[in-house]
Amino acid sequence: MIVLAIDTAGTGCYAALYDSLEDTVLGSAGADIGRGHAERLMEFVDAALDAADMVLQQVDRIAVTIGPGSFTGIRVGVAAARGLSLALGVPAVGVSSLAALAADRKAGLPLLVAMDAKRDEVYWQSFAADGAAISPPAIATLAEARDIAAGHDGMIAGSAAVLLREGALQEGDGASIATVARLGALLEPQDHLPKPLYLRGPDAKPQAGFAIRRA
C-alpha cells in the first residue's frame, strides 16, 4: 500500500510517500515554516511525489496528523487530506500527534507524552511500554499535569517534559513524517476518520447581542 502522509499540526509542513509492504519512505519533502501551511502544503506534496517518482493516482491511502497542535495548521492538513481522498477515491485516516510522538520515541517503557499547550496548560496522553495508549488524549492545567507526572513511573516526552520533571531535556513536539505514514498504514479507516482533535475550544467566540435577524 502506498500512503501519502501529511503533517501540518505544528510549525512544520511535511509530506511523504510510504510503501507499507517494503516499510520504506519513497520520497519526502517539507520544512519548519512556522506559518503559511495553506500556501506551501501542495508544493511539498508535489516535491515528495517527484522524489518518489510517483503520481497522485498511485496513492492508496492518505494519512494526516489531526492534532493537538496548531488550530489553523490542523484545519489545513485535514481539509487537504479530505479533498485528496475524495478526488482520488481512496480512504483517509487521522493520526494523533500524541500517538505519533510516542511511536517516534520507541521508549520500551511507560511513556507520558506531554505537549506545552501554552497558557499554563498541557496536552497529554499516557502509553504503555508496548506503545499502546492507556489514556485518551486530554488537556490539563500545568498544576494538574505536574500531579500526573509525579505519579508516572516511566519516561516523559514532548515540549512540556521540562515543565513537569526536573532534569528533563528540552525537546519539540514534532514526530517524523515517516512515523506518521507508518501509523497511518496500520489504522482502520472507518475507526480513524480525519477530523481535527481539538482539546481546547476556539479563541474566537460569537459576541452576544450582535446576531442579525434572518428574514
Structure report:
The protein is 31% helix and 25% strand. The chain has 215 residues and is an alpha/beta fold. The mean pLDDT is 92. It has 6 helices and 9 strands, in the order E-E-E-H-E-H-E-H-E-E-E-H-E-H-H. The strands form 2 sheets. It has a 5-stranded mixed β-sheet, with helices on both faces. Strands 8-7-6-9 form a 4-stranded mixed β-sheet.
Summarize the helices and strands and which ones pair or pack.
Layout: E1 2-7, E2 12-19, E3 24-32, H1 37-52, E4 61-65, H2 71-88, E5 92-95, H3 97-105, E6 111-118, E7 121-127, E8 138-141, H4 142-150, E9 155-157, H5 161-164, H6 177-186
Parallel strand pairs: 1-4, 4-5, 6-9
Antiparallel strand pairs: 1-2, 2-3, 6-7, 7-8
